[in-house]
Amino acid sequence: MCGLPDPLVKVVSYVSADDAVTYILEPLDDYTGYLEIIKSNGFDQEASDVEVDDTFMYQAANGDGYVLTFSVSAEATVISIEKRS
Known about the structure:
The chain is mainly β and 85 residues long. The protein has one domain (11-83). Helix content is 12%, strand content 49%. The chain has one helix at 31-40; strands at 11-17, 20-25, 45-52, 55-61, 66-72, 77-83. The protein has a six-stranded antiparallel beta sheet, covered by helices on one side. Strand 1 and strand 2 form a beta hairpin. The chain starts with 10 loop residues before the first strand and ends with a strand.
């Protein structure tokens, strides 16, 4: 996952197309801990986050031209990574 460590939850499904991949995972108990790992792995440029109801979403780019979207709810964790063109 673009250099990110295994989040240690089951991958429910994934989709890969062209320069993008999306992983749907079981919910993370401690998403804030994994968010810090994401940031420390370089996904901290042009960062934004929002929390609506019970869903948290974070989006940021890295220096290699990838954009990551990290979304967490009670039902699932979703990590999408896309190469900018």
